[in-house]
Amino acid sequence: MTPETEAKAALRIAPATTGDFRIFREFPATIQADANRLAEITTLVRGRADEVLVDFGQDVEAGALLATLQSGELGLSQAGFLRAHAKLTVAERAFQRAKALLEEKVIGQAEYQRREGELLTARSEMREAHDRLRLLGMAEPEIARLRRDETIRSTVFIRAPFAGRIIARNIVRGEVVEMTDQLFTIADLSDVWVIAHIPEKDIAFVQADQKVEVEVTAYPGESFEGRIGYISDVLDPATRTIRLRVVVANPHKRLRPEMFAKVRLWTKPEPGVLTIPATAVVHDRGENIVFVQVEDHAFERRPVALGEETNGQVKVLAGLRAGDPVVVDGAFRLKSELAARQHPMAIQ
């Protein structure tokens, strides 16, 4: 080529290089809340919603009050507890009197044993009433208050089990709720799960505790670093895939459940691999070719055998050696120039 023609072609030449080479695969995925930090809040007793104190998207602390219910069932259970407590008090006093009278030989052994049996029965009924209150959600301080004040309060307090964000609310004031109703969903989104399904042919790309890159449709051009937390031990026979779970830190809550994402998995680095930019390769008559500079303004058409491509670099299996000066920009112009020289009537 003449210097003028070469200048118009805007050629850029770079040597073929060797180094570490890795390839990657990308798989579609979705973001989910960490199931270990997710809670479906229900009630342990039927009641009517008296107050609802939180809403969607609100951050709450552990133990924060979410709602209150008024429950007749809880009131009846508290009344039963107070009856059991009173019966136990009477039985304890009667037993102590019987014990003293037995020592004075005022009553017989049979009467003493009867009083003892009544005490054991009262203790059993007290434990049953106490356990029922616990099953209905009353904490020990509330039960102690009930025993001390003997005042029935039928209010049920719905509290957050841990700090997190309200991502679902299915309760309104005045509504009658059942024990099967899911009132709130709380999620701690400081970490999220990214769930992907890996085809059988790509399982070799997956390794335990491997660091991966996650890209989210909502934030194009940005990637998040994650680590593989779980690899399914069983292949899905219908889809021929395994389930992969990636844990990603989410300190700013930008990643939200049900977002679409993709997971990028890299192979281990392969050392000493010869690579060239993918822009250097053109296809000509069924071959992959590159143009190698052999001297000033002179270029040679060189067929090459290629391997995998990643990040704009392609692996060279044959046809080049390290250091060969390859045209990395303008190869198509050289191909057209070569075709014109070989076939002068060809349309350029």
Structure commentary:
- It is a single chain.
- The protein has helices at 3-9, 72-103, 109-135, 140-149, 331-342; strands spanning 12-15, 17-21, 24-33, 38-41, 47-52, 59-60, 65-70, 155-159, 164-169, 176-177, 184-187, 191-199, 211-216, 223-231, 241-249, 260-266, 270-277, 282-284, 287-295, 298-303, 305-310, 313-318, 325-329.
- It is of the alpha+beta class.
- The longest helix has 32 residues, at 72-103.
- The radius of gyration is 38 Å and the shape is rod-shaped.
- The two termini are 16 Å apart.
- The model has no long low-confidence stretch (mean pLDDT 89).
Mean model confidence by pLDDT: 89
Q: Tally the helices.
A: 5
Radius of gyration: 38 Å
| SSE pattern | HEEEEEEEHHHEEEEEEEEEEEEEEEEH
Strand composition percent: 35-45%
Beta-strand segment tally: 23
Please tell me what the overall shape is: rod-shaped
Lateral strand order in the biggest sheet: 3-12-15-14-13-16
Q: Could you give the distance between the termini?
A: 16 Å
Catalogue the unreliable spans. Answer: none
> Roughly what percent helix?
25-40%
Question: What keywords describe this structure?
Answer:
348 residues; alpha+beta; four-stranded antiparallel beta sheet; 5 helices; rod-shaped
Layout of secondary structure:
Elements: H1 3-9, E1 12-15, E2 17-21, E3 24-33, E4 38-41, E5 47-52, E6 59-60, E7 65-70, H2 72-103, H3 109-135, H4 140-149, E8 155-159, E9 164-169, E10 176-177, E11 184-187, E12 191-199, E13 211-216, E14 223-231, E15 241-249, E16 260-266, E17 270-277, E18 282-284, E19 287-295, E20 298-303, E21 305-310, E22 313-318, E23 325-329, H5 331-342
Antiparallel strand pairs: 1-23, 2-17, 3-12, 3-16, 4-11, 5-7, 5-10, 6-9, 7-8, 9-11, 12-15, 13-14, 13-16, 14-15, 17-22, 18-19, 19-20, 21-22
Helix pairs in contact: 2-3
